[in-house]
Each structure stands twice: as structure tokens, then as C-alpha cells.
Specification:
The complex is a heterodimer of chains A (115) and B (114). Chain A is mainly β and 115 residues long. Chain A contains no helices and twelve strands. The chains are: A mainly beta (115), B mainly beta (114). Chains A and B meet through β6, β10 and β11 of A and β5, β9 and β10 of B.
């Protein structure tokens, strides 16, 4: 069965520091999709990025960047020059392809950005 | 474009009572999901519908939980009878085709079982 591990339960940084959130996954499928979602204090989950298993290109979007490495089954998320508004719980998630897709979230990392 | 709607937002019940939650997904989205999120944990998928058929309900406690999606649009999730450990936020989400698409989440229903 598939599994997502986010070993960092909580991280605190000071504003403007860079921070990396780790995500390690397990799957036996060769085709799968990885996601990051943000859950701010308001509670509503917000999609950040999706990656499929055939696309190992790293991606940058503003202050956010993602590093996907199949060799280590990792999909890490870096926030550059963090801001207070980045404070939230961040979830990594995995979807296996095919009908009866199995979708699983990791346990989340709570990020606190202090002013 | 309207987002995913859920009601009620909050519910407090006694154990052994019944409760129902309602979800209206984004128009045109084929897939609808119900998640249970216990405080401090990641959301756990309870059931996934594609149109009005069930794709995955492997983690739904079928002795007390039931869900339906009539006409492939709105959905209801019911708990009968509730237990203390059912206290959680119940999230509904939808995606345009399947779980490899972006999911859009509703605000959730916070259930407290006393």
C-alpha cells in the first residue's frame, strides 16, 4: 500500500529565512502523482502543485520551489525568504494512477514563521 | 466560479445519535471525496465517487458510516450511531476528473461527539 511520510512535525523559522519541508513516499505503482497542499489557520486546504512520476523536472513558482527525486522517493518543498503569511500546515499527498486510485495524505508539517 | 459548499459548518451531538453532512461540489466536477481530519493529523480519505459510482471506500467504517451521491452531483455522508472517536472535521472535495487532478476543498464540518 502507498504511504507518505513527513518527518518534520513542526518547524519554526524567522521571517526571511529559507525553509525546506521534506516528503518521502512509498508506492509500487510506476505511474503516480504527487501533490502539496497548504492548510492555513482558516482551515481550508489549498492546492499548491502536482507532479507526475514521469516528470522529474524541478519547479519554481515565485518563492516556492519543489525538488522531485525518484531515486530517493522524495518530493521536497522549499520556501525562499519566508513570510508570516506562509504559516500553515503543509501536506504532501500521493495518488496512484488507474481506476480505484488510492489517494493518501501525509501527516503534515506545521510551519510557523515568526516576525 | 462557486467553490465546494458544505453544511452544516459545526455540529455537536451526543454519542449514539445520528448526523448527516451535505456537500455540493464545483459544477462539472466528476469526482467527489469525503475526508475525515482528526485534530493534528492529515485528512484520511473515507470515500471517493466518480459521478455517482464509488471508486474507493476502503477506509469507510461501513458499520456506521454511509454516503451517497445521487445524480452524480450533491452528496451526503451519514454517521449512525456516532462514537466519541468520530469527533473530527469532515472535508468534502471535488476534482474535474479523478484523483490525479487538483482537488478543491470545502470549508469542512466540525463534528463534536459528547
Amino acid at each position: 500500500a502507498q504511504k507518505v511520510t513527513q518527518a518534520q512535525t513542526e518547524i519554526s523559522v524567522v521571517e526571511k529565512e529559507d525553509v525546506t519541508l521534506d516528503c518521502v513516499y512509498e508506492t509500487r505503482d510506476t505511474t503516480y502523482y504527487l501533490f502539496w497542499y497548504k492548510q492555513p489557520p482558516s482551515g481550508e486546504l489549498v492546492f499548491l502543485i502536482r507532479r507526475n512520476s514521469f516528470d522529474e523536472q524541478n519547479e519554481i513558482s515565485g518563492r516556492y520551489s519543489w525538488n522531485f527525486q525518484k531515486s530517493t522517493s522524495s518530493f521536497n518543498f522549499t520556501i525562499t525568504a519566508s513570510q508570516v503569511v506562509d504559516s500553515a500546515v503543509y501536506f504532501c499527498a500521493l495518488s496512484e494512477a488507474g481506476y480505484g486510485q488510492n489517494f493518501v495524505f501525509g501527516p503534515g508539517t506545521r510551519l510557523s514563521v515568526l516576525p | 466560479e462557486a467553490g465546494v459548499a458544505q453544511s452544516p459548518r459545526y455540529k455537536i451531538i451526543e454519542k449514539r445519535q445520528s448526523v448527516a453532512f451535505w456537500c455540493n461540489p464545483i459544477s462539472g466536477h466528476a469526482t467527489l471525496y469525503w475526508y475525515q481530519q482528526i485534530l493534528g493529523q492529515g485528512p484520511k480519505l473515507l470515500i471517493q465517487f466518480q459521478n455517482n459510482g464509488v471508486v474507493d471506500d476502503s477506509q469507510l467504517p461501513k458499520d456506521r458510516f454511509s454516503a451517497e451521491r445521487l445524480k452524480g452531483v450533491d452528496s451526503t455522508l451519514k454517521i449512525q450511531p456516532a462514537k466519541l472517536e468520530d469527533s473530527a472535521v469532515y472535508l468534502c472535495a471535488s476534482s474535474i476528473i479523478s484523483s490525479y487532478n487538483e482537488q478543491f476543498f470545502g470549508p469542512g464540518t466540525r463534528l463534536t461527539v459528547l
